[in-house]
Design goal:
The complex is a heterodimer of chains A (254) and B (328). Chain A is an alpha/beta fold and 254 residues long. Chain A is built from nine helices and ten strands. Chain B has 328 residues and is mainly α. The chains are: A alpha/beta (254), B mainly alpha (328).
Amino acid sequence: MTEPALASAPALAVEGLRKAFGGLTATDDVSLDLRAGEIHALIGPNGAGKSTLIGQIAGWIAPDTGRVRLGGRDVTALGVAERARLGLGRSFQVSSLAAPLSARRNVMLAAQARAGSSFRFWGQVRRDRDLVAAADAALARVGLAGREGLPTAELSHGERRLVEVACALALGPKALLLDEPMAGLGAEGSAALADLLETLKTEAPILLVEHDMDAVFRLADRVTVLVAGRVIASGPVAEIRADAEVRRAYLGED
Amino acid sequence: MAERRELLASLLLLVALAGVALWADAAGEPYYVNLASRVAILGLAGVGLNLALGFGGMVSFGHAAFFGLGGYACGIIAWHAGNYEPVLTWPFEVEGTDRMPPIWGVAALVCGAAAAAIGALSLRTSGVYFIMITLAFAQMIYWFAISWPAYGGEDGLSIYVRNGFPGLDSYDPLSFFAIAFGALLVALAVSGRLLGARFGAALTMARLNPVRLATAGIDPFPVRLTGFVISAVITGWAGAIYADLNGFVSPSMLSWHQSGELIVFVILGGVGRLAGPVAGAAAYVALETFVGGATERWPLILGLALLGVVLFARGGIMGALAGKARHD
């Protein structure tokens, strides 16, 4: 099957995704898409099924039904690593890095995957200028210039999240999946990251899971609200802000 | 800095091992030359295991399978050469040989194929299940060797004429040490090189954080499987040389005691330290020889030493010599 309309296809699309664990339907017919140049926020109370949805998009969890498309290509049957190589960059809610390795080494691994096969047994990565430069450039973009050589264990909580964003950038992403990147950053760090996301979204649109409502309403172009596994509202920020059901279900007003 | 110190400690260790062999040879003590050969070969086997266990995080309790398969590859091929019977008659005839290099090649192929099969199944599990499944595979091969009468079964197989190496008299203890020591140096150099390469970066991340590895776009399974196969090939190579040192191969080389012994070399010497298993094997052989000469209860001392390392000095002997490992 050829898909000629790749250029106009959304960077990421989720179609009719459904996932049940026993009697609990964690994802209930969820559809959403991520278009070029936008930040699409995914919000919802705890237990709304955001993590399960993210897991299915990234490839950790197989959906019962439905599809995930990346740039128009059906990736539902592909694994995590293959999706990453196709350009799905991701950061975790609880940062997941190799603590004893330096920030640079963590990011270099993503650059390595982008630069081709990992089954090379002779050339030494520490002397691979391209990999080092790619990693340092990605770290500089997230504001970690000068911290490249530190073991990630010695970085602050917020800095580790930024290293994860740098890892995602080093992949050369076509879509970014950022799971609460602001958490633990502090006001100043949050503002800096918000500025970064504003510029990043033109390169790769961002699906942003975020609890900080101020950040969501400031940054997002569109918002999807998930409650009990279902999409109860989806649309431009102003619309969501005004939506009575969202207010009731999520923003805690009645 | 720490890396420099580790390199220095490793070099000192290797020079000391070669020094012992040279000194013993000059002093007319072939027993001690052979002891040094034993350390080199067991160290080589440990270097193989360490690649899987220490660097790849795959705690294999079945590496004796590869050590023994390497040993049997050597024994069986030499037996055929000695009896002028072809190893294979179908689909084509293959003669036996009494030369080490082709024997090593066969041992590597056999161990690589076995590790690919065992790894492909075992690596679908992790943690204690991986330990148990590798043990189970090794036990299967162990019982197979015991119950197969063609090559000695339980009694093992003698190698009446030590296999030769081009340009060296393999019966001369020092020359044999040079062969074993050379193999160890090659394995150390190759391991060090591939660990610093892209493959090593991926293998290290497969141990530290497989989720991050997959998220970076690299599937952990083929990386681990490749590491497991390379590890098995090195341990199998050691097995083939060990069979020649002893002139004998028996199912005990395949036993779970042997697997445990290999793990002891790695832990005693320093998990994830390149030359750690050499230090571990040296300590083990020294304990066995000198304390074992004084008392049968030398394993008690070994047990205490192991306990001490696990509780107080995780880096093992190399860790004590070279300080904490640090990555740049």
